[in-house]
Amino acid sequence: MSCPVCEACDTSAGCIAKPRADCRRPAKAKGATLALTNRSQDRKDALRFAWTKGAATTLAELGDPVGATDYTLCVFDRTGGADRLVLRAAAPHGASWKPKGAKGFRYRSRGGAPDGLTSLVLKSGGDRKARATLAGRGASLGLPALALGTPVTAELDAGDGACFAAEFAAPSKNTATTFRAKGQ
Length: 184
Fold this sequence. Notes:
Number of strands: 14
Strand order of the largest sheet: 7-8-9-10-4-3-14-13
Helix content: under 10%
Order of helices and strands: EEEEEEEEEEEEEE
Strand content: over 45%
Oligomer: single chain
Mean pLDDT: 94
Low-confidence stretches: none
Shape: globular
Distance between the termini: 34 Å
């Protein structure tokens, strides 16, 4: 059985929403932030995820987003004791990616195609130096109604390897239109 990114294979239930257990975490407490804004006019929806002060990551571990590596942001909340996938947004490999110096890559998509992501920066480095920052906006994000069940997990998943994640258990704001939190 093969399941899409953001899902895990379960022999009895098939593909289920489930965060990966093998993702890198920030090397320092509160080394990640997540902000989601769901406006009544979907074109004003917004997303920001920053995984900073990350665990050591080599350039090779970032993969090749120019030629082969797709990146997907998965956001899960916990409702009724079960993980629920609330957002899946992709930054596919290809021409929207460029090398960023000798340490990373940058993704730019003015229109946010295909899933609303407009920028993604990946940087390799030692403990507390590696980072990934992502932004998105507009109706293509497909944001759900917010007021998410906690903890919320955000993971940036490279389809062929690396995964960068953080958990957000105590949001500073968690309403029907806004979720804001620093990672644990």
